[in-house]
Design brief:
7 helices, four-stranded antiparallel β-sheet, paralog of FGE (formylglycine-generating enzyme), single chain, alpha+beta, 27 strands, about 375 residues, Immunoglobulin-like
Length: about 375
């Protein structure tokens, strides 16, 4: 290949690379203190005052598409773009970069000013990666106040330094983390979101997660207590991401006994009836409908702990609501066990030394209801 042809190929590659690169939306926010939308108004065809979006972009000649009124003005690296009330998106086209479309977090309001910062691509700069995972799959991911994705997992490629990551999803509380991007490295960040309505009692929090309606194969063929394997259907429910903390127990029960302190901060040495007393007081004070999990709900949660975002399960045994008995093949939907019995079901493997046999989510054991143990705690469940 001669020199002229080589130079031509290099120029073409550079041009293609430049065109394919995309502008990056750095931030977008409503500025309540900025009154320029009212002080310098433009009206739509119905004589309603428009919303004003100030787009910071150091790239002359940009073309804007959307529900725009008039021609955007450009001065000192900033475009003033007027849009009708209720506008939901804006598309930006430039000569040197691929188009950038941005869907506003919520429809724009008349007479309001918004600030939008758009920067040129950082692909040429040294970067690192953050692999973002969550117990919620359909979730809006905001990085440094800019929406990047609506699904997890998601890999963010960014410049070195600290970045703010916020996850928003219907039915869950917003989750925020600060994370450091390290040059040339990929870091995995797991953000397990708390369900909306998670507890907060005088500053003591208890996170919960949502389980959808499901059917699953319950039991195993390992041991006669776990047989037969049978199909169980469950309605949607919310379950605690960890056992009840001793701090929450003390707050509700008005006690502070050292014997109740579990190895990981959970409450222990409580009888089945004391659990019910706690739940009754909690529900009265918080206007909720918490209860103990059924054995089937516990097993489903333990089997799917990672995808549900359950942080701790199986590290200590936990009371369930069922009386202990052998399984029946016709238990069907939302089984609650026999109507009466002598011992209650406890689940989790730590009643014995750490062992894969006892750690299995199908492992079952029992306890006399009025006999507490330093190795038994409980978690909360609520119907949805």
């Amino acid at each position: 290949m001669n020199m002229k042809r080589l130079l031509f190929v290099i120029v073409v590659i550079m041009c293609v690379s430049s065109v394919n690169a995309q502008l990056e939306l750095k931030s977008f926010k409503h500025d309540a203190a900025d009154i320029d939308a009212v002080q310098y108004p433009k009206e739509d065809s119905n004589h309603n005052i428009c919303a004003l979006v100030k787009v910071g972009l150091a790239e002359p000649g940009a073309i804007f598409e959307g529900d725009i009124i008039g021609t955007p003005d450009y001065k000192d690296g900033e475009y003033w773009v007027y849009l009708i009330e209720g506008a939901t998106w804006l598309n930006i086209k430039t000569k040197n970069y691929a188009p950038l479309r941005y869907d506003f977090p919520e429809p724009l309001n008349s007479k309001n000013t918004y600030i939008m910062l758009v920067i040129k691509p950082i692909s040429e700069l040294p970067t690192g990666q953050i692999n973002i995972r969550s117990n919620v799959k359909k979730v809006d991911i905001y990085i440094d106040d800019v929406k990047h994705s609506n699904i997890t997992p998601y890999v963010f490629k960014g410049t070195e330094g600290q970045h703010k990551i916020v996850l928003k999803a219907s039915g869950y509380m917003d989750a925020e983390r600060l994370v450091e991007v390290v040059l040339g490295k990929t870091t995995t960040l797991i953000i397990n979101m708390d369900a909306a309505g998670s507890l907060n009692v005088n500053g003591i929090t208890y996170g919960t997660t949502n389980a959808e309606a499901c059917s699953f194969e319950m039991g195993s063929n390992r041991f006669y207590y776990e047989t037969p394997i049978h199909t169980v259907s469950l309605r949607p429910f919310t379950i605690g991401k960890r056992p009840v903390p001793v701090a929450l127990w003390n707050e509700i029960m008005g006690t502070n006994h050292e014997r109740n302190n579990g190895p990981n901060g959970e409450v222990v040495n409580i009888t089945f009836d004391e659990c019910q007393d706690f739940i009754s007081l909690l529900n009265q004070g918080q206007n909720r409908h918490f209860r103990l999990p059924t054995e089937a709900e516990w097993e489903y949660a333990a089997t799917h702990a990672s995808e549900l975002g359950i942080e701790e399960i199986g590290s200590i045994m936990e009371w369930c609501s069922d009386w202990f008995a052998h399984y029946k093949t016709n238990e069907g939907s939302n089984p609650t066990g026999p109507e009466k019995g002598f011992v209650k079901v406890v689940r989790g493997g730590s009643l014995y030394e750490k062992n894969s046999w006892y750690d299995a989510p199908t492992y079952r054991w029992h306890q006399i209801p009025d006999v507490p143990s330093g190795r038994i705690s409980f978690r909360l469940v609520e119907d949805r």
